[in-house]
Amino acid sequence: MGEGKRDGKEARRPGSGWTGLGYAGMNQIGNMVSDVCSERERVGNEVLTIAEVTIDIMCTLYI
After folding, report:
1. Where is the composition biased (Basic and acidic residues) (predicted)?
2. Cβ 34 vs Cβ 62: under 8 Å
3. CA 60 distance to own-chain centroid
4. In angstroms, rounded to a whole number, what is the distance separating the alpha carbons of residues 17 and 10?
């Protein structure tokens, strides 16, 4: 019975943490990503680093 309670608590904890991150964090991350995306368009750099490829993927997901 004790283990059942513990499992329930562990299952609930990531959900509430993700919800908090979802509302506050995702807005902030979304704004940051869109800023970086518009910055990349302005620069128009042809050389892609791993970070820039990751940013391109994030841009595709967020826009």
Report:
1. 1-13
2. yes
3. 13
4. 11
- 36 near 55, Cβ under 8 Å? yes
Q: Which residues contact 48 (CB under 8 A, 6 or more apart)?
A: 56
Q: What is the pLDDT of residues 7-45, one digit of tens each?
A: 445 444 444 554 555 556 667 767 777 776 666 665 655
Provide the CB-side half-sphere exposure for 24 (13 A, CA). 6
Segment (H or E) for 20:
helix 2-20
What residue type is 49 in one-letter code? T
Q: Residue holding tokens 């979304």?
A: 30
Q: What is the pLDDT of residue 51?
A: 75
